[in-house]
Amino acid sequence: MSTDTAAKPRRVNLRTPDVMAAVQAQVETHYRSDIVERLRATGGTMSVDGVTVRLAKQFGFCYGVERAIDLAYAAAKVFKDRRIFILGEIIHNPEVNHQIAELGIKNIVPAGKEAELRDLTAEDVVIVPAFGSDVTTVSRLKELGCQIVDTTCGDVMSVWKRVRQNAQDDMTSIIHGKASHEETKATASRAVLEGRGHYLIVLTLEDTDYVCDYIRRGGDKEAFLKRFAGAVSEGFDPDLHLQRVGVANQTTMMRGETEEVQRRVMAAVRDRDGEKAQTNYRFFDTICGATQERQDALRDMLDSRMDLLLVIGGYNSSNTSHLAEMGEVKLPTYFIRNASKIESRDRIIHFNLHSKAERVTEDWLPPKPVTIGMTAGASCPNNVIEETIVRVFELHGIGLDRLK
Predict the structure, then answer these.
(1) Is the full-model pTM beyond 0.85?
(2) Residue 374, CB-side half-sphere exposure with 13 Å CA sphere
(3) N or C: which end of the chain has fewer CB within 10 A?
(4) DSSP state letters, 113-135
(5) Is there a contact between 85 and 106 (Cβ–Cβ < 8 Å)?
(6) What's the rounded Cα separation, in Å, for the pair 313 and 339?
(7) Which domain holds residue 122?
């Protein structure tokens, strides 16, 4: 269809009372857990015959994830006679993404490339996931006249507002995040506005120190661009575009690490510019509230006595990975996708954050009495958490009937 003749889609309210009532019933069928709800209501601890499971006070689905899932389910009901697509995964959880596919919603990963969008028409519905999508892709969907269902998290859009302001003020956005992550890609696309603004993505404090050294003393431009290949805007020149900078972040990063990035960059600009530094540097607190709540809750729980920690969620989930990082510092920690990874009392399959691959650990479960901590990322549904709790007790001969 020609973009010149594509009709602007009419606004459709997906959140009508009747649609949302049906959606809520369906979502609860797929993701609800009576055991987890009871644990939440009674302090988060369950003990039976020398086996104790301790659940963090904050875990699992956040509001933004719940909203995204609700809107996807609502789209499947309201637009049941039309083709429905989603730009990648709605969230980083395999069970949830499988359920979305079961609704008949087809996954496409455009990454801003025309080839992946060419088969879409104005009759199609396209869901933008919770992470958002890049400016080029969204603009193309609008040109095609597609019905867009935007589930982008409000916290993510708050970051977009900040980096757009940086672009308007000809400032470079230094984004603390993962350059390959959908959210960071979407944010970076908004840090460049009509030929103004640039971005640089840093992942580690080592990256940050390298940038800070360049801010203070300059350096080898070619080496700089090689190090950050794929993590800078087109035409980025460190000699020009590190003069005025604003720090932003992927919302699911560790707050303490993002704050350290901010401190180090600010110190570097002050060392270089002296009194003029305040006009050449800015930052905003844009860490997701739900991410911080889950990190704080785990930090509190890690102060109590536990034999090991199970972190449950998708391996490509940034906020879940950070929970596993926190646990590893304190005690044996196993990052698992779901209960099927717990094969026996002698064998568990879990994700290694350093090798970025699953590994097998033998003799992982201590004998009774044992206390097992559990937490889950913001994209992990309660039913997956329940299945893990039930599996842990089953390994000790304690059946589901004794957990109700």
Answers:
(1) yes
(2) 30
(3) C
(4) -HHHHTT--TT-EEEE-TT---H
(5) yes
(6) 10
(7) 64-151
Contact 88, 129 (CB under 8 A): yes
Residue entry with tokens 């009194």: 275
> For residue 217, what is the enclosing H or E element?
helix 205-217
> Which residue is associated with the tokens 């509190």?
300
Q: For the chain, count helices (H), then strands (E).
A: 16, 16
Q: How many CB atoms lie within 10 A of CB 171?
A: 22
In DSSP terms, which residues pair with 345 in a beta bridge?
A: none
- Is residue 2 pLDDT above 50, yes or no? no
Domain identity same for 165 and 192: yes
CB neighbour list of residue 137: distance below 8 Å, 6 or more residues apart: 87, 110, 111, 112, 117
Catalytic residues: 183
- Output the pLDDT for position 190: 96
141: CATH = 3.40.50.11270
State how beta strands 45-48 and 51-55 pair. Answer: antiparallel
**Model confidence pLDDT, tens digit, residues 157-204:** 999 999 999 999 999 999 999 999 999 999 999 999 888 899 999 999
Contact 188, 201 (CB under 8 A): yes
311 domain residue, yes or no: yes
Of all residues in the chain, the percent with pLDDT exceeding 90 is 86
Domain identity same for 114 and 163: no
- Domains: count for the chain: 3
Please report, for the domain that includes residue 168, its CATH number: 3.40.1010.20
| Residue located via tokens 């509230």 | 289
